[in-house]
Amino acid sequence: MAFKKISSPKVSVIIPLFNGEKYIEEAINSVLRQSFRDLELIIVDNGSTDGSRLIADKFEDKIKLFIESKKGVATARNLGIKHAQGEYIAFLDQDDYFLPTAIEQLYDVINQSEHLAVMGKTHYLFETQASRKRWPQINEEGILFSTLLGACVFKKELFEKLGYLLENPEISDDVEWFYRLDQKGIEIQKVDSVTLTYRQHDNNTTSSQEYTQGVILKLLKHTLDQRRKTNAS
After folding, report:
1. Whole-model pTM?
2. Residues 199/23, Cβ–Cβ less than 8 Å
3. How far apart are CA 147 and CA 119, in angstroms?
4. Contact 153, 81 (CB under 8 A)
5. Phi and psi (nearest 5°) for 126?
6. How far is CA 65 from the centre of its chain?
7. Phi–psi pair at 190, nearest 5 degrees
8. Could you give the domains of the chain?
9. Per-residue model confidence as pLDDT tens digits over 64-96
10. What is the rounded radius of gyration, in angstroms, for the C-alpha atoms of the chain?
């Protein structure tokens, strides 16, 4: 069945786009071919200078496309949230893709749950041996629960309660978001199904354990700074 835009979707899927011409079409198609049809796809182009926009334009009758000056992935995601019509929010990175029943499986759980967030399993796809060596802690199968935005579906009200993603280029917005959920006692319900393929390649900004550790250190410093400001006021 052909994918059609709908005015009142249950789920809004948001893809931030920046110079992703190599992978973006596969990401888009993985959304449009979902078994769950009650959704909208929002793409926020963040100032691409390659052929990404031309690829996205091919789907103009099926997606909502917004253009943003290069302000970073968190700003793009937040713009997507602001334009989202769905009761639930899902994210997908331009170089990853959903499995065909991903949204259906996550929606079926969260729609019947008191939880504000659900998480499926992630399959790590390593394109090179070099990228594989950067993640020695991941098992040979490459499948696990991982705190990635693309592995989750969130109730939109969660962003209205806790605020949007942190727009700070020094701190990974997804790491900060999951940290914030943990600090607020928001439990993420786990769904025992693989829903996301997370591609690891040499151009990933998050393609090493060392990067992740560096982000966590910056996040801790940011948190301490915020607490000092609060205590001083």
Report:
1. 0.88
2. yes
3. 8
4. no
5. -95, 120
6. 17
7. -95, 140
8. 11-232 (3.90.550.10)
9. 999 988 789 999 999 999 999 999 999 999 999
10. 17
